[in-house]
């Protein structure tokens, strides 16, 4: 028995709903709080093309000693 068949035997078939229906976004308090938090960040790119998030109040980054952390090899 395949893993998906085993799961369906236990929990029943997957519910896919109407795939043609538009996605409904519920703008609840949690989602609003997440969006408020994300507004405090901007995306920065280093010289090697890596992307990372930087708080907007710390946007001066490496000049202030707060650049991205990297693994030491």
The ordered H/E elements are HHEE
Question: pLDDT below 50 for ≥5 consecutive residues: which ranges?
Answer: none
Q: Give me the number of helical elements.
A: 2
Summed over residues and divided by their number, the pLDDT gives a mean of: 81
Helix content: 25-40%
Strand order of the largest sheet: 1-2
What quaternary form is this? single chain
What spatial form do the alpha-carbon principal axes imply? elongated
- The chain-level structural class is alpha+beta
The radius of gyration over CA amounts to: 22 Å
Distance between the termini: 45 Å
Biggest sheet, in brief? Answer: 2 strands, antiparallel
Description:
By secondary structure, the chain is of the alpha+beta class. The chain has a domain at 26-68. It has two helices and two strands; from the N terminus they run H-H-E-E. The chain has a two-stranded antiparallel sheet. A hairpin with a 5-residue loop joins strand 1 and strand 2. The protein is elongated. The termini are far apart.
């Amino acid at each position: 028995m395949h893993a998906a068949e085993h799961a369906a035997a236990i929990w029943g078939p997957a519910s896919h709903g109407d795939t043609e229906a538009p996605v409904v976004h519920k703008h609840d308090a949690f989602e609003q709080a997440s969006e408020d938090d994300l507004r405090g960040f901007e995306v920065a790119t280093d010289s090697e093309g890596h992307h990372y998030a930087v708080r907007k109040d710390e946007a001066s980054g490496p000049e202030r000693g707060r650049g991205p952390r990297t693994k030491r090899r």
